[in-house]
Amino acid sequence: MPSPKGPPELRHLERVLVSPQAIKRRVAALGERLNADYARKDMMVVAIVNGALIFTADLLRVLRSPLRLDCLRASSYHTGTRAVGEPRIVDQMKLDVKGHHVLLVDDILDTGKTLAAVAGLIKDKGAASVRTCVLLDKKARRAVPFEADYVGFEIPNEFVVGYGLDFNERYRNLPCIGVLKPRYYREK
Asked: Which CATH fold would you assign to the domain 23-150?
């Protein structure tokens, strides 16, 4: 039975990098910046799922601009701990972005390949503007010149899980962001 303090997988963490309280404060601060930047504009939020699901949900709760939400599914990790090859767009958006101010939301900016590809795709579809918002920025892993417009936290080059981030679809429900103990993700 899970502990009242959280999911049992918390003990799989080597250490916590970002506490639930710090996440809540930072999401609120990002929301305030976005509210100022998108004041009197209709915005379209496009979340890259599954990873950005929890972050996007919390961010939407603090946004005051009229908005529409769409999601797409992209992957560059496939089943490991490192981004490999080119990102794949697995599931496309349903809404038309032409003429809209798009905020692209993702959980982590790592190599930059996924966000660069998706931002380019949205621009090519005729969006009025495209800005990016990421919960985590891992600059040490950047493989392409890409920077997010809004960043929650800059983190070191370690494998992290929690608050939407996963390893093989596990750990997304952790309330914090932590470094996963290597024995739980070693490649077989």
From this structure: Rossmann fold (3.40.50)
